[in-house]
Amino acid sequence: MDISTNLFEGVIVMFAIILLAILLKKVSILKKADSELFSYIVLKVTLPAVIFSSLAIQHFQIEFLKMAAIMAVIEIGIMVLAWFIASLLKFNPGEKGAFILVSAFGMTTLLGYPIIRQVFPGSTMAMEEAVVTSEFGVGFLLFILGPLIAEYYGESKVEEKSILKSAHKFFTSPIFISLLAGVGFSFIPINHDSPVFSTFIHFFKLIGNANLLMVAFTIGLIIEFKKIKHIFLFVGIAVLLKLIVKPLLAIWLTNNPQFTEMMREIVFIETALPSAILTAVFAKQYNCRPDLVSMAIMVTLVLSVITVSGLFAFIF
């Protein structure tokens, strides 16, 4: 089975579980409020377990930081382009901030890891590349610039304290701690075939296996279908930037022999993913048109079923 087929199946499986969560919410087995518990489990338990178990059994490769740098360049480039387009179309401040958020940041952690696990089954190397690229290339910018953009263009004033608080929250989060622990553990000379080590890693892998279900349920319970006036232009251009322009930019920037085929495929997948759910959290917190952000997340999530697999098959 080729990678394109794996990717298509991975996206479809994820989407099917999301639809199941929506159905369970519809029949009142689950509630929207339950999404808080699922997302908490993802951020505090299953996702850190995925990160640690992926990094601990590999020797950390400095080359992966090149991918992280490429991701950071792409994120900043899309932010600038989104700002320029929003200014050209004379979006009001709230719309401009929301547009930048949904165009630049994607679900590289929440949705990216489960899909990459599906695309490259059993490949710890692929997961290590994905984790380093996502956390160093996207995580820093999302947790620092995300709140800053929402504050600046929203109804809240920009305060240095809140920016520092957001950065501190990321650097003390289980996700970042598991990242450091995994990298540090990879340098310890341990026999990976020993029963003790195998059992230790297996424990974290079992926990990490629940990540796909927890993520899909979180997304399914958060999604709401609402009618918003004058949304088509906003969402249409955001979809174009997030799902088409951004991954194509990634392919162009990694068109170099120093990047392996797997590296290019992973960067493509992570840049082609739908808008990040955390952007809705930031937009809600600072009243930066959270209605537009939530709708854009939902639309990009639905359309990504087609665009991610379609573009991947066309390019690779």
Please give a structural write-up.
- This protein is mostly helical.
- The protein has one domain: Na+/H+ antiporter like fold.
- Helices cover 76% and strands 0% of the residues.
- It has 14 helices and no strands.
- The protein has helices spanning 3-26, 34-56, 64-88, 93-104, 112-119, 124-153, 160-171, 174-186, 195-208, 211-222, 232-253, 261-271, 278-285, 290-315.
- Helix 4 (93-104) packs parallel to helix 14.
- It is globular and about 60 Å long.
- The chain starts with a helix and ends with a helix.
% residues in beta strands: under 5%
CATH architecture: Up-down Bundle
Helix content: over 70%
CATH class (first level) name: Mainly Alpha
Multimeric state: single chain
Brief rundown of the structure:
With 316 residues, the chain is an all-alpha fold. The chain is built from 14 helices and no strands.
Question: Mind sketching the topology for me?
Answer:
Elements: H1 3-26, H2 34-56, H3 64-88, H4 93-104, H5 112-119, H6 124-153, H7 160-171, H8 174-186, H9 195-208, H10 211-222, H11 232-253, H12 261-271, H13 278-285, H14 290-315
Helix pairs in contact: 1-5, 1-10, 1-14, 2-8, 2-9, 2-10, 3-4, 3-6, 3-11, 4-6, 4-11, 4-14, 5-6, 6-7, 6-12, 6-13, 11-12, 11-14, 13-14
List keywords for this structure.
single chain, 316 residues, mainly alpha, Na+/H+ antiporter like fold, 14 helices, 76% helix
